[in-house]
Design goal:
alpha/beta, Rossmann fold
Length: 193
């Protein structure tokens, strides 16, 4: 089961609508869906809240550090609440997927994603769950930095939001640790995009 749900992004209004913040979009939408107001917790360097799904208490976290220091907040919350690494789900943007495609997996590399890189470094292990939200690729690696820090087109944003909305319906299964069921539901969704 998942005891900590993390939405990666950069802090500040200038980044809120950028592609790099789609992880934060999903966690914010999940909090809103469950009427949870995320509160700034300085000791965790993040905005935090708690939801209870089918009797399972799950902490929500939006790190307030910049992306490349995301591990600071994740490690602080996990350490404080004694949450094991395999009960953490990190939601982040994925360049290698078309906009709106969402995939769930456990472990693996960071693929150059600075937020994942820092989380892996802080914990000394990549063995946490990831929910990857496709944002598309600009076509060349030199264009990536500006691409992730810019807003998606209206069409891409609509696809991303559709992917997020569909994922929200599956979140109870994910929180309960029904990963096979969640993957089947989630990985069949691109037919609908």
């Amino acid at each position: 089961m998942i005891q900590l749900l993390v939405g990666l992004g950069n802090p500040g209004s200038e980044y809120t609508e950028t592609r790099h913040n789609v992880g934060a979009w999903l966690v914010s939408a999940f909090a809103e869906q469950h009427n949870v107001a995320l509160q700034v917790e300085r000791k965790f360097s993040g905005s935090c809240g708690t939801v209870v799904i089918k009797g399972i208490e799950c902490k929500l976290l939006l790190p307030l550090t910049y992306m490349n220091l995301s591990g600071q907040a994740v490690h602080a919350v996990a350490n404080y609440y004694k949450i094991p690494l395999n009960a953490i789900l990190v939601v982040h943007d994925e360049l290698d997927f078309t906009p709106g495609m969402v995939r769930l997996k456990c472990g693996g590399g960071h693929g150059g994603h600075k937020g994942l890189q820092d989380i892996i470094r802080r914990f000394g292990s990549p063995d946490f769950y990831r929910l990857r939200i496709g944002i598309g690729h600009p076509g060349h690696k030199d264009l990536v930095a500006n691409y992730v820090l810019s807003r998606p087109s209206c069409s891409d944003r609509d696809k991303i939001m559709l992917g997020i909305d569909k994922t929200l319906t599956i979140m109870p299964e994910i929180i309960q640790g029904k990963m096979d069921t969640a993957m089947q539901l989630l990985h069949g969704q691109e037919d609908l995009l």
